[in-house]
Amino acid sequence: MHAVRHHRGKIRKDALLHSTFLIIIIIILCSYADAFSVMVPARRLTAARGHSVVLGCNFSPDFGANPNLSSLVLTWQRQEDSHVVHSFYYERDQLETQSSAYRNRTALFVTELSKGNASVRIEKVGINDAGRYLCTVSTNLGTDKAELQLDYGAFYTEPRLTISVNSSGALVQYETEGYPAPVVMWKGEDGENLTDHIQTSVQSNEETGLCYVKSSYTAPNTPLSLTFILENHLLHQYLQRPVSYTGGQNSCFNQVIVPVVVSFLFLVTAAMLIGYMIARRDKLKDCFFKKG
């Protein structure tokens, strides 16, 4: 009998401990569910030169149906130098603390703040905007922060084509500007990669945030048919420009006909000058004899 009572007591004790454990777990889960948190939808973004970009940031829980932003303090900063990109507290933008590099270029979605939207828009993106950004939000429910990386790129302009012909062959050259440094290839008529007789230079300009690219292919003979290819992987830009050049008639014209024409014009001009001088001399003689 004593053993039965002891067994029942142990069962009740185990049940109590189990219930207590479940209650603790539920309390912990509820506390985590209600914990204040800040998050970014994308930890890495890409912005194109001259365009706008939205640095996404959200916090929860939000202010609900009856928002009171008096406790909200929101700050966007650059991680590298701690410069203030945009800040909001006392229920208004605090542009006095903003870095001059972002003046008149940023805006919050103020009507969305009560819903937990702490995103900031940056206009006219330039190369100096690239870097890491920190979104810090505080309310009466807590404080948290999240970080993201912004990459900068510039679409390459339409490549400018020039073709120069001389006695050794034809020089085909393309020039363009963009960012970052691209992948440049030349392909032959049958799609094969051309590696010989190619020169490509890339010069970076930190002030403009652009790379000046000049790539050329020297064809030892003409006619020729090839393709210039440029890839900007960051902005998913792909340029492909085919080039066809027969060169036969033009080369003959440049190397033979042009010198002949120039020589002929020179002779005609010289003959006209000599004729003019002879006519003027004869006219002077006639005047002299008439006076005599």
Q: How would you sum up this structure, described in words?
A:
Helices cover 26% and strands 39% of the residues. The protein has 2 helices and 18 strands. The strands form 5 sheets. It has a 6-stranded mixed β-sheet with strand order 2-11-10-5-6-7, with no helix packed on it. The N and C termini lie far apart (173 Å). It is found in: Membrane. Keywords: Disulfide bond, Glycoprotein, Immunoglobulin domain, Membrane, Signal, Transmembrane, Transmembrane helix.
Tell me the layout of helices and strands.
Elements: H1 2-34, E1 37-39, E2 44-48, E3 53-55, E4 58-60, E5 73-78, E6 84-89, E7 92-93, E8 106-108, E9 120-122, E10 131-139, E11 142-153, E12 160-166, E13 169-178, E14 183-187, E15 198-205, E16 210-219, E17 224-232, E18 237-245, H2 248-291
Parallel strand pairs: 2-11
Antiparallel strand pairs: 1-4, 3-9, 5-6, 5-10, 6-7, 8-9, 10-11, 12-13, 13-16, 14-17, 15-16, 17-18
